[in-house]
Structures are given as structure tokens and as C-alpha cells.
Design a protein that fits this description.
flat; mainly alpha; 3-stranded antiparallel beta sheet
Length: 463
């Protein structure tokens, strides 16, 4: 009873802070799920599950405390400890480990001082490669202890000393890693292209870097709410083996989930068939998440209620993902809206009873949802409340044709006037022409190349 009261108080606090609470058990197995990742993302995912999932809360927070103590970030340990102290104070992990905190803090400070001293020595010796490695090692150390801002500064300082293609790629990846953790999506998009901008002679290496660019660009586009662009990035990640190298950010299962869900939310049926189901490179990802492939197939084949049932059955898993959680409700609503529109498209009118039987949840009517879709322009129809019908609004093809003809006439008139004006300007010799300069003579005035080659005459020689 006391444990239930602690959990109730904990999740009440989380709800008051604006957090998302998942009351039902997800389909994922916590140990198997977290084993797909490495690096700092493991703690982020465990902590999010501990803060949101009622059934997995205690197990996730205990694992988060253990994960934090395997690293050197004291702030992360404190965040996990504060959560488990409120949710399950009787657990052994809920006791503050002052000895570990003191020991880790002392070791972090000593290591930082040692690396800064070494970096100063490298700078005094003026060895560029040693300076670059010193900045990289110090940045990685600061990242591991949670000082992301200072770590980013040291990574950026690597750029003047980067002398090879691999060095430039290394700088870009480190900077992008920091921005992903800080959720600076605009910064990710600005820096990720620099990784692929470097010419690589090895095709395997180039494919690997392309996979990295697509993954990080997709996450940034998803963070910005651009679902179509994000879906295209995830669908173009490429070889599964290349993706598994970047499981410090996402797993191959995540690529399948992100690509399939976002494609369902933003792409039409023909694109879903060509870019998802017929995509040979993405098929290997769909094999890891067969329910995503099944949901897309159901939508393409017109079985919309079955598609929505599959998506809704895995909704709790999506709400526990660090990248999908904030956008899950919007993604679900877009998929549901597309299903309703596609269901209604072949008909001139549909009874509300059939729509309720197909799409409405138990005890609820779909009519308020239809009203919102009509207001937003997503559904071109009107509701007949007397006969309980959803009636399509047919556009007048004559009016449409006349509007297009008028627009074409106005465009032609504007283009003709611009061309006549241009001809008159040229005929009146009013055209502004740029001055031509010879190669290598910029800044020396309007000197023509033939003038520079002119032989000096007698007056020039006398002068």
C-alpha cells in the first residue's frame, strides 16, 4: 500500500509538471530494449521510461541509477536518485551514495586538470596533431561528465588543426553529437552536411557516412515537426550494417519505427508502396518491426480500421521513445485523419453509423472529429445531421476550368509585358552592362587584357 501511494504521489507530481503518463504496460521488454543501445542515450531512455511508464517505473529508475554509476556524470546520478527516492524510497538504489559521488567528483577534477595541462604542453610544442587530439580527448572527457557546453567549445577548437578528411568528419560528428543531446535541431542540420561534404575514396566509408547523415538529419527534421522530410531521411538510411554502427543514437528498430510511422502520417498511398513496401534497403529494417510493415500494408490495401488498430496497440511504446514522445499525438492524429479521408474518398455520401463502426472508439461518436477536420480543410465534406450522413462537397468543374484559364491568361500577359519592356530597354541602349576585367586584374581598375599587351610607342618611351 505504501509503495502504491509513493507511486501515486510521484506520478501526480510528474503530471503537474506537464509530463506524459503512460498507465498501461507497453509491449517492449525493458532489458531487451535497452540492450540495443550504447553510450549516453541508454540513461536518457531509462530515465524517460521511469518518469512516464507506471508499470516499468521502478525497474527503469533502478536501471538508470546503475547506468549513471557506471559513468562519470554526477548530475545524471542525482536526477535518477531524486526520481527513485520519490517513486520507491524503500529500494536500495534510493539511498544516496555519498562515497561514489565524492570519489567520482575528485577523479573528474583530477582528470580535467591533467588533460588541460597536457593540452598546454601540446600548444607550447606547436604540434598540430597533438593539439587536435588534446582538444578531442578533453572534449570527450567533458562530455562524459555532463559539461556539454564546454565540450562543444573544445570540439570546435579541433577545426583549425584538422588536416585530413577523417579529421574533418570527426569534428563534425562530435559537434553533432553534442547538439543532439542538447536538442538543438537547427544546429544539427547546419553541421551534419559537413560530415558528408568531405570527398571519400572508399565507397563503404562513403555509404556509412551517408547513413549517419540520413539518421541525424531525420532526427532533426522530426524534432522540428517536418514529418515528410524526416520520413524520407529514415527511408534512405541504407544498409542495416551501417546503421548498427550508430546505436549510440538510435537502433535499427527505431529506424523502422520512425520511417514507417512518419511515412504513414505524411505520404500518399503510391509513395507508401514505392518508398516503403517496395524499398529493398528498407525491407531489412521492416523485418525487425513486422507490425510497422503490416500497418503500412493495411493502409495501402484500404483496410484502415486494421491499420489504426495496429498503431494504437503500440501507442504506449511510441510514447516512451525520447524522440517520438513529443510528436506522438500529432502523428497519430495525422494517420487517423488520412484513414478517414481515404475511406470516404470513393463515396459521395457515407452514413455516420458506418464511420462510427469503423473508426469511433467504444462509447464515443466520430462526429466532433469530423467537424474539426472539415473546419481545418482536411475533409471536403459537410455533415447532414438530419439524415446522419457525411456528404461530399463536389466542386464545379466549369468554375475550376475558368479560374485556371484566367490565371493562364494573366500569367501570359505579365510575361509578354516583361518581354516588351526588355526589348524597349535594349533598343534604347539603356541596358546596364557589367564591366569586364581580365583574370588576375581585380582591383586594378577597368583595364582590358589587350591594353596590357599593347606595345609601348615612342611617346611612352620618352615619358
Amino acid at each position: 500500500m505504501a509503495a502504491e501511494q509513493n507511486l501515486l504521489a510521484y506520478f501526480t507530481t510528474m503530471d503537474n509538471q506537464g509530463g506524459i503518463i503512460v498507465k498501461d504496460a507497453p509491449k517492449l521488454d525493458l532489458d531487451l530494449y535497452i540492450s540495443n543501445y550504447r553510450g549516453r542515450t541508454r540513461f536518457e531512455r531509462l530515465l524517460l521510461i521511469g518518469q512516464c511508464s507506471v508499470p516499468l517505473c521502478v525497474d527503469a529508475l533502478k536501471a538508470a541509477v546503475i547506468e549513471a554509476k557506471h559513468g562519470k556524470d554526477i548530475q545524471r546520478y542525482q536526477d535518477a536518485w531524486e526520481c527513485i527516492r520519490a517513486a520507491a524510497p524503500e529500494e536500495p538504489e534510493a539511498r544516496w551514495d555519498e562515497a561514489w559521488v565524492t570519489k567520482t567528483d575528485r577523479a573528474n577534477k583530477a582528470e580535467t586538470l591533467r588533460m588541460e595541462t597536457e593540452l598546454k604542453g601540446y600548444k607550447n610544442n606547436l604540434v598540430k596533431e597533438s593539439i587536435r587530439i588534446g582538444h578531442r580527448d578533453l572534449g570527450e572527457h567533458l562530455e562524459s561528465i555532463g559539461d556539454l557546453t564546454l565540450a562543444s567549445e573544445y570540439y570546435i577548437k579541433m577545426r583549425p588543426d584538422a588536416s585530413t578528411q577523417s579529421h574533418i568528419q570527426d569534428v563534425g560528428k562530435h559537434v553533432v553529437s553534442i547538439m543532439l543531446q542538447k536538442r538543438d535541431w537547427a544546429g544539427v542540420l547546419a553541421n551534419v552536411n559537413k560530415v558528408l561534404a568531405v570527398n571519400t575514396t572508399n565507397n563503404n566509408e562513403q555509404n556509412s557516412e551517408l547513413s549517419y547523415q540520413k539518421i541525424t538529419s531525420g532526427l532533426a527534421q522530426l524534432g522540428l515537426g517536418k514529418f515528410y522530410e524526416a520520413a524520407r531521411c529514415f527511408l534512405e538510411v541504407g544498409d542495416l550494417a551501417n546503421c548498427q554502427r550508430y546505436n549510440d543514437t538510435v537502433s535499427a528498430n527505431d529506424i523502422a519505427t520512425y520511417g514507417g510511422l512518419l511515412a504513414l502520417a505524411s505520404m500518399e498511398r503510391s509513395e507508401l508502396q514505392s518508398r516503403v513496401l517496395d524499398n529493398s534497403s528498407f525491407r531489412s529494417y521492416l523485418e525487425l518491426e513486422p507490425h510497422i510493415r503490416k500497418a503500412v500494408s493495411m493502409f495501402v490495401n484500404g483496410r484502415y480500421s486494421s491499420c489504426l488498430e495496429i498503431i494504437e496497440s503500440y501507442a504506449n511504446d511510441y510514447l516512451l521513445d525520447i524522440y517520438l514522445q513529443k510528436h506522438a499525438s500529432n502523428i497519430f492524429s495525422q494517420i487517423r485523419g488520412k484513414c478517414i479521408v481515404q475511406y470516404f474518398l470513393p463515396f459521395s455520401c457515407v452514413t455516420l453509423d458506418s464511420l462510427n463502426a469503423t473508426f469511433a472508439k467504444d462509447g464515443k461518436s466520430i462526429e466532433p472529429e469530423l467537424v474539426e477536420m472539415i473546419k481545418s480543410g482536411a475533409l471536403n465534406a459537410r455533415i447532414n445531421t438530419i439524415d446522419k450522413l457525411l456528404v461530399a462537397v463536389s466542386s464545379n468543374p466549369r468554375v475550376t476550368m475558368q479560374k485556371k484559364a484566367l490565371k493562364a491568361a494573366k500569367d501570359y500577359e505579365k510575361e509578354a509585358i516583361d518581354r516588351i519592356r526588355r526589348m524597349n530597354i535594349v533598343a534604347a541602349d539603356l541596358e546596364v552592362k557589367g564591366s569586364r576585367k581580365g583574370p588576375g586584374l581585380s582591383g586594378l581598375g577597368d583595364v582590358w587584357p589587350e591594353d596590357s599587351r599593347r606595345q609601348p610607342n615612342s611617346s611612352d618611351a620618352m615619358a
